[in-house]
Amino acid sequence: MLFLISLAFSHYGNIRLGADDSRPDYSNLTWWYGPFLLCRGLLWLTFFYHHNLPMRISNLFYPILWERAFSPGAGQ
């Protein structure tokens, strides 16, 4: 990542891809916002599954099933 950032700020970052009169479809803000949202989503998923929230949420809607599944005599 450090290599790509240094490459972007060097003179190689000014090379145009396409015709001389063409303009980019997206602004620089849009290109920086994409990786930001990717990292934010990965952090959210890490938090979501690390704290076992899916089981807690499903337990709110189906408490009887969880009580039967995890009762002491469930495996017999």
TrEMBL record:
<keyword id="KW-0472">Membrane</keyword>
<comment type="similarity">
    <text>Belongs to the BCCT transporter (TC 2.A.15) family.</text>
</comment>
<keyword id="KW-1133">Transmembrane helix</keyword>
<keyword id="KW-0813">Transport</keyword>
<protein>
    <submittedName>
        <fullName>BCCT family transporter</fullName>
    </submittedName>
</protein>
<dbReference type="InterPro" id="IPR000060">
    <property type="entry name" value="BCCT_transptr"/>
</dbReference>
<dbReference type="Pfam" id="PF02028">
    <property type="entry name" value="BCCT"/>
</dbReference>
<keyword id="KW-1003">Cell membrane</keyword>
<keyword id="KW-0812">Transmembrane</keyword>
<feature type="transmembrane region" description="Helical">
    <location>
        <begin position="29"/>
        <end position="49"/>
    </location>
</feature>
